[in-house]
Amino acid sequence: MGWFTRKKEGIVTSTAEKKETPEGLWYKCPKCKSVVPADEHAKEMFVCKTCEHHDRIGSLEYFQILFDNGKYTEFAKGIYSGDPLEFEDTKKYVDRIKNERTKTGMDDAIRVAHGKMNGEDFVVAAMDFKFIGGSMGSVVGEKIARAIDKAIELECPFMIISKSGGARMMEAGLSLMQMAKTSAKLTQLSAAKLPFISLLTDPTTGGVTASFAMLGDLNISEPGALIGFAGPRVVKETIGRDLPEGFQTAEFLLEHGFLDLIVNRKELKTKLSHLLYMFKN
Amino acid sequence: MANYLPFEEPILQIEEEIKKAKEIEENSGVDTSKMVKDLEKKLKDTTKDIFEKLTPWQRVQLSRHPDRPYTLEYINTMTANTFVELHGDRGVKDDKAMIGGFGQLDGQTIMFVGQQKGINTKMRQYRNFGMPNPEGYRKALRLFRLAEKFNKPIVTLIDTPGAFPGLEAEERGQGEAIARNIYEMMTLKVPVICIILGEGASGGALGIGVGDKVMMMENSWYSVISPENCSTILWRSWDYKEKAAEALKLTSTDMKELKLVDEVIKEPVGGAHRHHEEAIMNVKKAILKTLEKLSPMDPDDRCQKRVEKFCKMGVFNSK
């Protein structure tokens, strides 16, 4: 006989009687579990008031945070993936792309925009993790290339906000070469003596880390961001033991000399403006 | 003792028959020369047949063939033993998976840099299976700059299953080391030729893979990930590696067609692993021929063309 017996059969609360909380009204911090109203969390730039945990946000949120009065011009729109390899795994790549585009309403895993930051021209390319893990294929490479052209045209600083699992496997050799393409474009920006800021956000790994993300005149990150070349699981498998605490966090990279500084998102705009002012004056 | 892959078995069988026929002649004096001749023709035809119909996965297997010549063998043979290996990144240590140094190709001094695999179990460990750490990439960059200073062309020889994904590699900035190399190689004022000899796995290969001319050996592969890892990630099982090899379009023919590499270097029928000397001489010829074109160019033009070539890579649609 079991230790517990059910006295009544079935679930007693009828569906109609269930009290439901509307989605997205409250935000619960995944780190410290404190709960705040969602709109208040947005006002805090998606940084937890209690523990400073930086929530993952997308390109549009970053544009809102950085550009004056949230005003900016998105450009290089309407570029989307081709499928020259006719790649197919469990799903056709063309179908995967079609689904992602419908689901997210985005062209691909990046948006590029220009506008004013504290009155100065600024070009920003911001990656979106929700589009196939922020993976870099031909479209990401091309949009970054066009953003660099724009910065050269406007003679202004350029920033890439990285948030990516790395190169996109479904574009194989083509995505690998985006590492070379973006780096090649950065040599042109450098020749024009324009600053390149790399903001590495949670997570930045693989081919993105091994190309533009590590090539900033300044490499900046947000607190606690995961940054690495090989993913933590792969490293763990390689060494056959547990990883030390804090391994591959922004703080770890700062300590080992690969970041210039870690900036709280709420101070990002001020700090960037100040630094860029000093580059210029 | 030579090694044979499963699809090479028919070759092994005929080779053994030839050996037996020759033994018979030696031992009993019976004339088997006609039989041997026929068998040799059959061997040639069979080999040709097998090698004309190689699948992408079979090419991947060939690229890792244990009898295949590795980087140092290429360099030593091509340079008629004039090669002097130079060590160390001047920072951390000497990475044994990445080798480099000056050598002469028909009287012309060239900086050779490449990943090195081991020829036996002990050496494989010593060479870390051809997987460099950040100091390997930094040594490569140091040698590139040395070559540039003394106006010597650079040849990189690529053969790696990937950059090492270890704990110390992360601490010392594997990502930064590869990124730095890709960037700096765009700006090198001397001719740069890159040749994928065997395995060209992802960033680990590209970290020494930016050049005016990028060439692939016929039976090598070059892609963003190995077919095995691709299979594990996309199909969640190791068993789809053959499918993955096909999907990735990683063979020399495919990569040339996609314009991601510039040229394919022919291997002798039967593969580089059966005919070292011939394969190595093909590489030497390709290097000399390419240098003839690259060396007279204006350094700034050459750099600009290199940058432009990589900027064109990628396929997308636009409205």
Notes on the protein architecture:
The complex is a heterodimer of chains A (281) and B (319). By secondary structure, chain A is α/β, with parallel strands linked by helices. Helices cover 33% and strands 18% of the residues of chain A. Chain B has 319 residues and is an alpha/beta fold. Chain B has 2 domains: 7-53; 67-311, 2-enoyl-CoA Hydratase, Chain A, domain 1, CATH 3.90.226.10. Chain B starts with 8 loop residues before the first helix and ends with a strand. Chain B contains 14 helices and 9 strands. At the A-B interface, strand 4, helix 4, helix 5, helix 6 and helix 7 of A face helix 7, helix 8, helix 9, helix 10 and helix 11 of B.
Question: How is this structure best summarized?
Answer:
With 281 residues, chain A is of the alpha/beta class. Helix content of chain A is 33%, strand content 18%. Strand 4 of chain A pairs antiparallel with strand 9 of chain B.
Number of helices of chain A: 9
* Helix percentage of chain B: 40-55%
In this structure, how is the largest beta sheet of chain A organized?
7 strands, mixed
Summarize the main sheet of chain B.
8 strands, mixed
Helix proportion of chain A: 25-40%
Largest contact between protein chains? A-B, 60 and 56 residues
H/E order of the elements of chain A?
Answer: EEHHEEHEEHEHEHEHHEH
The CATH top-level class label of the largest domain in chain B: Alpha Beta
Order of helix and strand elements from N to C terminus of chain B: HHHHEEEHHEHHEHEEHHHEHHE
CATH architecture of chain A: Alpha-Beta Complex
Unreliable runs of chain B: none
The portion of residues forming beta strands of chain A comes to 15-25%
What is the CATH homologous superfamily assignment of the largest domain in chain B?
2-enoyl-CoA Hydratase, Chain A, domain 1
Task: Give the overall shape of chain B.
Answer: globular
By DSSP, the count of extended strands of chain A is 10
- Spans of chain A with pLDDT under 50 lasting ≥5 residues? none
Shape of chain A: globular
**Span from first to last CA of chain A?**
82 Å
**CATH level 1 name of chain A:** Alpha Beta
Cα Rg of chain B = 21 Å
